[in-house]
Every structure is written in structure tokens, then in C-alpha cells.
Amino acid sequence: MRRWLRNDLRRLKRKSGVGPEAGGAARWFEISVEANAEACEAVAALFDRYGRGCAVVETLPLRSNRLSPDSSVVLIKAYLPSNLQFSQTRRAIEDRLGRLRTCYPISETEVREFTDQDWAWEWKKGYQIQKIGQRLVIVPSWEKYTAMQGEAVMHMDPGMAFGSGLHPTTRLCLVALERHLQPGQRVLDIGTGSGIQAIAAVKLGAGSAVALDTDATAVAVARQNASLNGVLDSIEFFTGKLEEIASQIQPVPLIVVNILACTIINMIPYFKAQLAPDGHLITGGILNKFSLEVEVALMKGGFEAVALLKEEDWISFVVRARRR
Question: Around Cβ 299, how many Cβ atoms within 10 Å?
């Protein structure tokens, strides 16, 4: 378990009046819903905001989910301490889930209670060392791993990047990053989340990286992960939108963005303005049904195709500014 999570647990026990300091075992609640792939990011972001640790996303086998036995469905979980704020936090989560249900198919919420020790096991259960592409190896912090020659090892704990396996959108972006990153380049990671793309870029040989997210909590988590991986000094962190902080960032030769398709389309002019000449843009988080719409928007926005990667229902485009 990450050091910051262990410290967080201790603080929570003291503040909430539960745990050994209060004469009893700490108790936790697991809140979970099922959602389709399109809703996954929105629900996970909500759970990241209110839960302890990060949201956990697991892909469910067909015909074993409550929503649709014939389509891809994920189980998304958040973990909350059993304290005086739990009822208020749960109401806030349910209120926002209700709004999301007007746009996406999301199951009813299930709640399960267990002890601190059970929580630690649940949080780790099912996560293992993952090899991505030719060089990247992602190792949970509680696992030991001896790197082979040429491997780039990252220590990352579960979050949206994990689940029962690294999420396809993240995996596609990491593979594209490994293929198109040139040694010493500066990389801009938009929608950094856990910081996994920015950290991977540095591990793969980038000279430096910029990690940007609109969520301050995500940026704080990304900082922690960068520190855990010994690359904190190689990454600049910003909270806000690209258009708000663009003047503070010089154009870069490689941008990676793993966000919703509609957001990618709206941000195309900003991507182009932030790319250095002959720079590459890696786009992830695109469901197959939106891929044509995104592709057309990228072509109209002055980009040309370099590569297309696909896994399950997800697409990642690699493009560059069209040469005149």
C-alpha cells in the first residue's frame, strides 16, 4: 500500500473515532456500481474524488453483469471510512450518480461494510505485475520485482489504470508512447490522472514531462506517484485546463491525452497550438463507436494519421500536424 495511503488511514482513524486508538477495529464501506465503457471514466472520476485511495475498475465477463449480458460492462468501486462524514459523503455520491444516470446506463449502488484488515486485502486483491509493450513493467508497491536489462519499471498502485488488468485506454496510450517517444523529448500529458503516462514517458527516456489535470486531487496523486518512482524532479505539474496554462508551457514534440472523445474533439485547436513542428499527438479514451467522429475532427483540424491502435472497444490514434 502506498505510504500516503497508510498515513491517510492513520489520520482517518484518529479523526473518525474508530480503529485501535478508539478501542475498536476500523470499519470501511465499499460502494460499487456497474456501468458501460462509455460511463466508466465519469464514474471513476467521481469515485476518485470521494473515495480513499483511487477508484478500482474491473472488467466483468459477458453474461455475468446486471446491466447488459451482451456488451462490455465494468464494475467500479470506491472505499470510504465508516466515520461521521460517511452519510453525507454517500448522499453526495448518490446525487452525482443520479445525474450521470440521466446520460449513461449505470446500475443501482451496492454498499458493503468490512474491517480495516479486509479493506487492505480488497484493495490489493487481483493486482499483479503487468508488462506493457516491449519495455514497460508496472509493479504494485507491495510486490518485489528485479528488472531485466532494458526494462522500464514503474511502481503504481491500483486506480483507474488497473482493475483486473490495466485499462485498455491506458494500455494503448502506453504502447503508443513507447513506440513514438524519442530519447530526450519533452512530453505533455493531458488529463494525467494517476500520472502514469508522464511517469512512463520519463522512465522510457523523455528528458522531462508536463502533467496536467483539471482535478487538483488527481494532480496531488500524480505527484505522489512521481515521487514513489523517483522522477518527481523531471515532471512539472499543473492544475487547470490546457487553454488556461498554455502560455506557461513551451510547445512540445509529443502530447499524450487520454480523456473523453468529445473533449478531445473540442480541444483539437489547443493540441495543435501546443505541438512543436513535426510533433506527434497520441489520443486515447476513444470508444470504437466515436472513432470515426474523432478521426474526422482530427483531419479537419489539420492532422494526418500516423498509427491506429485498438483493443476491445477502445481506439487510440497517433497523428501529427499535416505538412504543407
Answer: 13
